[in-house]
């Protein structure tokens, strides 16, 4: 098993933003990507697709993990421990806040074993719509009553991120929440104006650009975005 690269787990990487994040991170050559998927067959199929699109086969492999199942999360953590002995980076993609928290807790002992430069990173995929300030602003283009179930789950996930960011900062971790922007995926019926691969670049940048550490840690970070005619320059959303 490769140990000279950053061992990188990306959950829900068989489709959408997770798939493209896995593709871009694996293509960098610095990471060995564990492409997570609930279904073993779909996971292998997504890895085959990544390889057919040019990702080197020596940079990626599938791992079965259902972030809504504690047993599946524990089993995946055991596989990573047995095969690699550590984890350098975890990208958590999930609409279920409890799954995100349990996944991070399960892999934290392995993340703490990371000693490589660029390791000890945990990134949660969130949304700018999770911001209470944005939701309550009088001129908000996405007021609080719109998509409240999804948004509240992401607001709660931000709090999970903040807890880990506070807990792990003195251990040299980077923990942050990333907004990929309004991307067209199966979650929204492909209605977003951005492509999933464009949204994935925000996650890849946060994972690979060391200069963004202070901008990302403990924050909800985004690239320059334009939604419904309103522009947000690259930076962080207010809570």
UniProtKB/TrEMBL annotation:
<dbReference type="GO" id="GO:0016491">
    <property type="term" value="F:oxidoreductase activity"/>
</dbReference>
<protein>
    <recommendedName>
        <fullName>NAD(P)-binding protein</fullName>
    </recommendedName>
</protein>
<dbReference type="Pfam" id="PF00106">
    <property type="entry name" value="adh_short"/>
</dbReference>
<keyword id="KW-0560">Oxidoreductase</keyword>
<dbReference type="InterPro" id="IPR036291">
    <property type="entry name" value="NAD(P)-bd_dom_sf"/>
</dbReference>
<dbReference type="InterPro" id="IPR002347">
    <property type="entry name" value="SDR_fam"/>
</dbReference>
<keyword id="KW-0521">NADP</keyword>
<comment type="similarity">
    <text>Belongs to the short-chain dehydrogenases/reductases (SDR) family.</text>
</comment>
């Amino acid at each position: 098993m490769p140990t000279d690269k950053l061992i990188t787990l990306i959950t829900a990487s068989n489709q959408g933003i997770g798939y493209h994040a896995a593709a871009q991170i694996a293509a960098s050559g610095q990471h060995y990507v564990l492409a997570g998927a609930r279904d073993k067959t779909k996971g292998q199929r997504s890895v085959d697709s990544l390889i057919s699109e040019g990702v080197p086969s020596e940079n990626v492999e599938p791992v079965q993990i259902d972030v809504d199942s504690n047993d599946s999360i524990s089993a995946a953590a055991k596989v990573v421990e047995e095969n690699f002995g550590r984890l350098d980076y975890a990208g958590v993609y999930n609409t279920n806040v409890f799954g995100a928290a349990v996944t991070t807790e399960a892999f934290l002992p392995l993340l703490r074993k990371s000693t490589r430069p660029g390791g000890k990173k945990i990134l949660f995929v969130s949304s700018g719509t999770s911001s209470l300030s944005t939701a309550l602003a009088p001129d908000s283009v996405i007021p609080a009553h719109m998509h409240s179930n999804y948004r509240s789950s992401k607001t709660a996930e931000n709090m999970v991120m903040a807890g880990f960011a506070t807990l792990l900062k003195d251990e040299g971790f980077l923990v942050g929440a990333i907004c990929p922007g309004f991307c067209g995926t199966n979650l929204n019926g492909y209605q977003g104006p951005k492509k999933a691969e464009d949204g994935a670049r925000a996650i890849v940048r946060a994972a690979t650009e060391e200069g963004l550490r202070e901008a990302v840690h403990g924050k909800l970070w985004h690239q320059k975005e334009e939604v419904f005619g309103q522009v947000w320059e690259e930076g962080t959303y207010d809570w």
